[in-house]
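Appendix C: a fully annotated inverse folding record. The material below is reproduced so that readers can follow the format used throughout the book. The structure is listed first as tokens, followed by the designed sequence.
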């Protein structure tokens, strides 16, 4: 019995030690700082972000419990839940973030977004790494090219490495001189090239052909999508630990 108690204590101590050493969200380790990473979200405010074609974040975006949070219904003023975009623009980068949502919701992370009155929405210029619940986001979770981790409406990931709501998920997007890689929860789900003849043919075969500048910009904003109204109401999305390293 004494030996069993000691073993249980040692197991608990190891677990506690691991928990204590886990990195807190919205922070950088000394190693990350040395590698050139910087936070796009400080965990306290929406500094560095604004809603698309607006000077500040829309009213439905806020900071809650160390996360960027969107809470909205199925109606309301579009400017209140307009997609959030970074103040800065990026060309070659490694982007990491965590997200979670209420069941059956829908969102995405866009990049190379060109912010101009010429374009009504970020998705008219910026490709998107899709966010959708494991099975119940209709129709996205049941359509190839629209599941979580896909390059939306363009390339489907072979396996859905997505945690069911309301668990946290981690995305990583690496874009370097046209070489695009997606990772979902540590698993590579996409590896392709932008701006090639094959890329142009792919875009031309989808709904994005309606926007001739889509996927053509080589520098742009990062955007968090808030304009989708799928899922149980009130719809809630959360993003945290958003960090980027320019390559």
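Designed amino acids, in order:
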């Amino acid at each position: 019995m004494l030996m069993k108690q000691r073993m249980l204590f040692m197991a608990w101590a190891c677990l506690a030690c691991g928990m204590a050493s886990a990195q807190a969200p919205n922070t950088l380790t000394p190693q990350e700082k040395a590698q050139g990473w910087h936070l796009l979200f400080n965990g306290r405010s929406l500094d560095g972000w604004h809603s698309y074609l607006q000077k500040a974040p829309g009213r439905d975006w806020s900071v809650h419990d160390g996360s960027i949070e969107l809470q909205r219904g199925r109606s309301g003023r579009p400017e209140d839940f307009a997609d959030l975009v970074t103040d800065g623009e990026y060309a070659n980068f490694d982007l990491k973030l965590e997200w979670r949502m209420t069941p059956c919701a829908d969102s995405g992370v866009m990049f190379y977004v060109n912010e101009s009155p010429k374009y009504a929405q970020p998705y008219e210029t910026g490709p998107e790494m899709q966010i959708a619940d494991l099975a119940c986001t209709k129709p996205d979770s049941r359509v190839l090219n629209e599941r979580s981790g896909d390059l939306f409406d363009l390339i489907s990931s072979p396996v859905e490495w997505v945690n069911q709501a309301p668990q946290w998920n981690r995305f990583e997007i690496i874009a370097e001189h046209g070489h695009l890689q997606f990772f979902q929860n540590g698993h590579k789900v996409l590896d392709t090239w932008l701006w090639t003849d094959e890329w142009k043919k792919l875009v031309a075969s989808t709904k994005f052909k309606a926007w001739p500048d889509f996927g053509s910009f080589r520098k742009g904003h990062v955007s968090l999508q808030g304009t989708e109204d799928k899922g149980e109401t009130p719809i809630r999305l959360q993003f945290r630990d958003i960090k980027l390293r320019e390559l």
